[in-house]
């Protein structure tokens, strides 16, 4: 395809989408991944490890993105806006 990347690692990951290569396999289930970061995140679902803590309550998280989303429940920050109306949301998936 005509996709261009500034990082070789991004090109390699993209090429895997074409040839369906998933070199990172979970030994605990049948899940396979194209990226090591996605694989590492998946493995944490098996270990239950949650090293990140909210400074304002007792909530714990395994991923920084989850901690950031949670922190918005305390700050009431809504950084995602609908382009069709004035609605604002705490998470982009709610758009």
From TrEMBL:
Keywords: Metal-binding, Nucleus, Repeat, Zinc, Zinc-finger. The keyword Repeat applies. It comes from the Eukaryota. Gene3D superfamilies: Classic Zinc Finger (3.30.160.60). InterPro entries: Znf_C2H2_sf, Znf_C2H2_type. Residues 1-23, 24-51, 52-79 form the C2H2-type domain. One of its GO terms (molecular function) is zinc ion binding. It holds the Pfam family zf-C2H2. This is Putative zinc finger protein 91-like protein.
């Amino acid at each position: 395809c005509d996709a261009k990347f500034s990082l070789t690692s991004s090109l390699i990951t993209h090429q895997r989408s074409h040839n369906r290569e998933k070199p990172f396999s979970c030994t605990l289930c049948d899940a396979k991944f194209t990226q090591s970061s996605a694989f590492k995140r998946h493995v944490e679902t098996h270990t239950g490890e949650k090293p990140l803590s909210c400074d304002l309550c007792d909530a714990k998280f395994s991923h920084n993105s989850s901690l950031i989303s949670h922190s918005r429940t305390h700050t009431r920050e809504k950084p995602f806006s609908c382009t069709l109306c004035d609605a604002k949301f705490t998470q982009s998936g709610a758009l």
